[in-house]
Amino acid sequence: MEALLATAIGVLTACGVFLILRARTFPVLLGLTLLSYAVNLFLFASGRLRLDAPPLIGAAASPTDPLPQALVLTAIVIGFGMTAYLAMLALRALAESGGDHVDAAEEP
Amino acid sequence: MRNHLPILPILIPFAAALLQMADAQRTFQRAVGLLSTSLLLLVTGWLTLLADDGLLRVYALGDWPAPFGIVLVVDRLAAAMTLLSALLGCVALLYASSGFDERGRHFHPLFQFQLVGLNGAFLTGDLFNLFVFFEVMLLASYTLLAHGGGLARTRAGISYVVLNLLGSALFLIALGLLYGTLGTLNLADLAHRLTLPGHDPALARLAFALLIAVFALKAGLLPLSFWLPHTYTAAGAPVAALFAIMTKVGIVAILRVQAIALAPALPDLLDSWLTTLALATIVFAALGVLAAPRLRALAAWLVLLSAGSLLLTPAQASVQASAAALYYLGQSTLTGAGFFLLAGVIAEQRGAAADHFRSGPPPATWQKVAFLILAATAAGLPPFSGFIGKLMLLTALREVAAGPAIWSVLLAAGFLVMIALARDGCYLIWKHPATGEQTAAPTFAWQRATATLLLVTAGPLFALFARPLSDYAERAARQLHTPTAYLAGVLATPSAQAAPQGTR
Known about the structure:
The complex is a heterodimer of chains A (108) and B (504). By secondary structure, chain A is mostly helical. Chain A is 66% helix and 0% strand. In chain A, helix 1 packs antiparallel against helix 2 and helix 2 runs antiparallel to helix 3. Chain B has one domain (5-434, 443-495). Chain B has 21 helices and 2 strands. Chain B has helices at residues 8-22, 26-51, 76-96, 107-123, 127-146, 151-182, 187-195, 201-219, 227-234, 237-243, 246-265, 274-291, 295-310, 319-350, 365-379, 385-396, 403-429, 446-464, 466-480, 483-491, 494-498, and strands at residues 57-60, 71-74. In chain B, strands 1-2 form a two-stranded antiparallel sheet. Chain B starts with 7 loop residues before the first helix and ends in a 6-residue tail after the last helix. The interface between A and B is medium-sized, with 37 and 29 residues.
């Protein structure tokens, strides 16, 4: 399971970084989303990976650490809000400059 | 009431923002905003005086003791920084209340949320909570930056938002690593566990390096500072004035993490690279000051220059260097903000020439005097606070290994800034068309003139009260550099002692 999760995080990060380095706002937005998925998985894994251990006392013999799950929840909410704002900003740049280049510059 | 004092700098602007969102009437919003910032000024001023007794005020949110719950920690540094942000907030809001806030909706609540984020980031003693307050501050700043509209602001906004989202991702990775290796995110508890055996030192080191990199992005250290000048240039005058303290959040965070967690356990983490990069930042910013085409851009480059000078100090880890940094931080923040507001009023006065350095109608006399005072302060000329700040920095950094390099770069940068300011001042003050196209001077809202003058007088006042201020800075630095007292203060709650280990 560790290998699978590590591979998933690695692939997501690589794709995210690749997309962020593009010069169009839409791929950059997608790249940031992928990167935030990778980060959320990573945060989740910081509480150690365990099967059949809900983060509730009494629900299992040994509960898992609830804190990383709370952190992930906070991170998801914040990341979602930020991404939505960036999408709005990109749309506004598209309307104002007529292109979707990240510099909002006119096409040469 | 007295016990709840530490959380008031967060609650007051928060409540004001909620009130302002309930009623969108402009006069109501302005009244609530100004009331909130003046209240904030009183509370943070009182907090700063209280904190001077040297005791650590720890406020446990929800009364959960330290390593388990989130704590706010008020020491001299945190209190003084909230006072500085309240001061800046008060003045910038006064300026914005004369028409700038009408250029878009929701300016006032966002302004208050920015203050919530700033104060929270200075006060919190928990790294995840620091992340949350960073995001509150940044989200408000994204929208404030775009306030007023225009392609330049949108363009600056996209790169600013993308960069900061990347910074947040790195921040979260650092936090995940820290929690995975040390099992806590409370700064005091982290520092405590770093000194205990049983964790992977390489991973902890990597986590702290990532954390410092994120703070360096916010502070504008050289390879991560290309966003700063055009973002600050694009922002409206009062927004840019408030932004002048945002780079300082990163610097204070580096200073605090270095003093509390890194100095005892990983003292060599910042050694080899931070000072070099800070020197490169200073050179970069000084060249930028020379090349700036307008006063707003010049102010943005000056903000970067002061950030570079301040980043020289964390790697030294000495009380004297940190004290110099704190005094320099206070005066350079207010001077930078003053330049932004002055650029706003001068642009309005000169009409089409705006604040560009080219011939045009001359600014009013008080604006010329204000420019002179601010320029002398920024260039570090003797009677003003810039000189005292730079002198303190130079004295503190004389004995260190990189001393000669630091001295030459700081002095050369000061010389370049002086040349640039003298040249630009000539353009603004003397070069105007001889054929008198004397346009009638626009009538000023008193708020703008008052706000600008308040910040202009900060330089002379910092020089006049240099002794008490630098003494306070020294006491704050001494408190900052006694991590044992910090650890004891934060972790000495009964239940924390009952379960000293095994909280994983």
